[in-house]
Design brief:
Elements (H helix, E strand, L loop, with lengths): L1 H4 L36 H42 L4
Length: 87
């Protein structure tokens, strides 16, 4: 969702990396009998999802801004370098 907010799309073979996490309690899968599970309610886990989306969106925007600044700096250096002759 963080990618989608910045206009990106994903698809099969797109090369995107997705991170998944489980809120499962440790040892639940290996339990031989019934067990009790502690879970967060949907209302509480939604904040975690929102924070993840916002952090992803911000990281993408920061990377794009850094790229633009680097390109502008390179263009300025190239322009100034073409105007100044060092003897």
């Amino acid at each position: 969702m963080g990618l989608a907010r910045t206009g990106a799309t994903s698809g099969n073979g797109s090369g995107d990396i997705f991170l998944a996490f489980s809120t499962e309690n440790a040892g639940v899968a290996a339990a031989p009998r019934e067990i009790h599970v502690n879970m967060l309610s949907n209302a509480r886990i939604s904040a975690l999802f929102s924070a993840t989306v916002e952090a992803t969106e911000e990281a993408i925007i920061n990377a794009l801004i850094g790229l633009v600044i680097a390109l502008i700096a390179t263009a300025i250096v190239a322009f100034v370098g073409s105007r100044i002759r060092v003897s």
